[in-house]
Design a protein that fits this description.
It is built from six helices and 21 strands. It starts with a strand and ends with a strand. The chain folds into three domains: 78 residues, Uridine Diphospho-n-acetylenolpyruvylglucosamine Reductase, domain 2 (2-Layer Sandwich); 125 residues, Uridine Diphospho-n-acetylenolpyruvylglucosamine Reductase, domain 3 (2-Layer Sandwich); 65 residues, UDP-N-acetylenolpyruvoylglucosamine reductase, C-terminal domain (Uridine Diphospho-n-acetylenolpyruvylglucosamine Reductase, domain 1), CATH 3.90.78.10. By secondary structure, the chain is an alpha+beta fold. Helix 2 runs antiparallel to helix 4. The strands form seven sheets. The protein has a five-stranded mixed beta sheet, with no helix packed on it.
Length: 299
């Protein structure tokens, strides 16, 4: 590990050739050229301002919804989990949350504050930065339903306050400004009941445990649901539950999950994603679109 304290006054930590298998929920992935943990938002702004403009960046929270290929990522990974972690109530119904806060933590915080409407976040295995980037949802709720303002950062480290009207938001898609990334959001919640919200969160987590393979490494849902359909139903109908390539298997519990049974490579998982897509297309004429973000170089 190399400290950046001596370089331009930065206070974060830099690691070189960091194995991404240590930081992704699938537990696979080759090394990142550089892996940076900012001390806070100000430190991140300074770090970005000192990078070459063409430097490839990968933003990382809990490492879900992400497949890093076995050859690794030739660029800089910025790890926000536990670093951009501000979470506070602003007024009667507003909450400010930074990108490195786990979605489940945000849900529990709102519940304790007597605020409702984001209990569904407890079922999302990622951070708020990723939830904002893809309009993550679960159990009928979606992240951007509650967004009233976001804070983004650009390649020069400049911060921007932007309203939802600046973005095209849809199902698991958010389109905004190239070269800007989400670092925080203002959420508008609803007055609620502490006990009722906590019970709702508990029930959602119990439902998740019953229906999803939470005990094995996965990325969350692999494919977007086609309009009027469910990817899991299509995969199961194509006879792919339990189908494996190497150490990667379609979950027996939920067909839209691919699990690492312990010895999978990123290549195993990527080949299985393509096989599922091909088999479902052959069986139904529907070509599934991957929800997972695939980056890096093949080994």
């Amino acid at each position: 590990m190399v400290s950046l304290a001596r370089i331009a006054g930065l206070r974060g930590e830099l690691r070189e050739q960091e194995p991404m298998a240590l930081h992704t929920s699938w537990r696979v992935g080759g090394p990142a050229t550089r892996f940076y943990r900012p001390a806070d938002l100000q430190d991140l702004a300074s770090f970005l301002g000192g990078l070459e403009h063409a430097q490839p960046l990968l933003w990382l929270g809990l490492g879900s919804n992400l497949l890093v290929r076995d050859g690794g990522f030739r660029g800089t990974v910025i790890a926000t989990l536990g670093r951009l972690d501000a979470l506070q109530r602003l007024d009667d119904t507003s909450v400010f949350v930074q990108a490195g806060v786990a979605c489940a933590k945000a849900a529990r915080f709102a519940a304790r504050q007597g605020l409702g409407g984001v209990e569904f976040l407890a079922g999302i295995p990622g951070t708020m930065g990723g939830a904002l980037a893809m309009n993550a949802g679960a159990f009928g709720g979606e992240t951007w339903d509650r967004v009233v303002m976001v804070v983004t950062i650009d390649r020069r480290g400049r911060l921007h306050d932007r309203p939802p009207a600046d973005f095209q938001v849809g199902y698991r898609r958010v389109r905004g400004f190239d070269g800007e990334w989400f670092v925080a959001a203002h959420l508008k919640l609803a007055p609620g009941d502490v006990g009722a919200s906590q019970v709702r969160i508990r029930d959602l987590l119990e439902q998740r445990a019953r229906t999803q393979p939470t005990g094995r490494p996965s990325c969350g849902s692999v494919f977007r649901n086609p309009p009027g359909e469910h990817a899991a139903r299509l995969i199961e109908a194509a006879g792919l539950k339990g189908h494996c390539i190497g150490g990667a298997c379609v979950s027996d519990k939920h067909a839209n999950f691919i699990v690492n049974r312990g010895d999978a490579t990123a290549a195993d998982i990527e080949r299985l994603i393509e096989r599922v897509r091909e088999r479902v297309a052959q069986a139904t004429g529907i070509r599934l679109e991957a929800e997972v973000h695939i980056v890096g170089e093949a080994a």
